[in-house]
Amino acid sequence: MRFAIVHSKPNIASTNIVKTLKKDNFLPQVPILDTKKDVIYADEFTIKKYPFLKITDILIYASTHKSKKGEPSLCLHAPGNWRSADLGGSSGKVCPTSAFILKYLFQQLNKNAEQAKQENKLDPAYNITMEVTHHGPLIEVPCCFIEIGSSEKQWQDKQASEVIAKTIMSLQNYKKSDYENWIPCIGIGGPHYAPNFNKIQLNSNYAISHIIPEYSLPLTIPMLQQAEQKTTEQIKLALVDWKGCGNSEQRQQTINLLDKFGFKYKRTSNIEK
Fold first, then answer.
1. How confident is the model at residue 24, as a pLDDT?
2. Backbone dihedral angles phi then psi of residue 271, each to the nearest 5 degrees
3. What is the pLDDT of residue 26?
4. CATH annotation of 179-270
């Protein structure tokens, strides 16, 4: 497993995560790439500029997470924009990512957070969640965001940084061959924090890469093409959050488009979680 880490110098959580990595978990062979840009606009990490990225399995953006509610959270997601590009990237374009690596990282994140909570090191209020695909930057290298949220109190939390650093460095133990029973999928529907997809990612053999939320519907062929083409693994299935796909007409439109595109699909409600 070859991976690298993006450190955004203006980003508080990013800096604290990287400090923790260098202090306790750092492996010299893991590149840490510094940027002076806000992390959602950090699109300079090209293969032309950094040739070693051509053989990098995943580029990890260590970052802050922000939300209106300000709830403590540790988040994971792929970047990209299904529609407009209000926060970096390009309209209708998403980044490459890996369904298997996202699943592995999410399982490790939950494991590490739960252990830290049991040891009274991490505030039990932290919510561990995936997010749907959203915001920039847009790059050509497989990548994902791993974030501490949702206010400066959490961004400065050393224990949260420890959990994130430990999760990132667990990639040194990742072997794709260990997970041959996983089924690469995309997710469609549901809210931003993807509760149904969280459970599936944790408790089943379905591995989810990009998620297209309800607020980005109606579904389009270009969306499906982006989701499939920008997943490292060959997508086998679309997982549909049926109740999170709008009204009956909108749900049928989603199914019709999947049929037209030749995509097999399964409702999240029919998957044991």
1. 67
2. -110, 130
3. 65
4. 3.40.50.10700
For residue range 146-158, what is the model confidence (pLDDT) as tens digits?
Answer: 999 999 999 999 9
Nearest 5°: the CA angle 239, 149, 197 is 10
pTM of the model: 0.97
- CATH topology match: 3-173 vs 179-270: no
CA distance 181 to 166: 25
What stretches of 121-263 show up as alpha helix (H) in DSSP?
152-155, 158-169, 195-203, 221-229, 248-261
160, two tokens:
């949260």
CATH of region 3-173, choose from 3.40.50.1980, 3.40.50.300, 3.10.450.350, 3.40.630.50: 3.40.630.50
Q: Looking at residue 25, what DSSP letter applies?
A: I
- Domains of the chain: which residue ranges? 3-173, 179-270
Q: What pLDDT was estimated at residue 25?
A: 59
**Rounded distance, CA 265 to CA 238, Å?**
5
Q: What is the pLDDT of residue 186?
A: 98
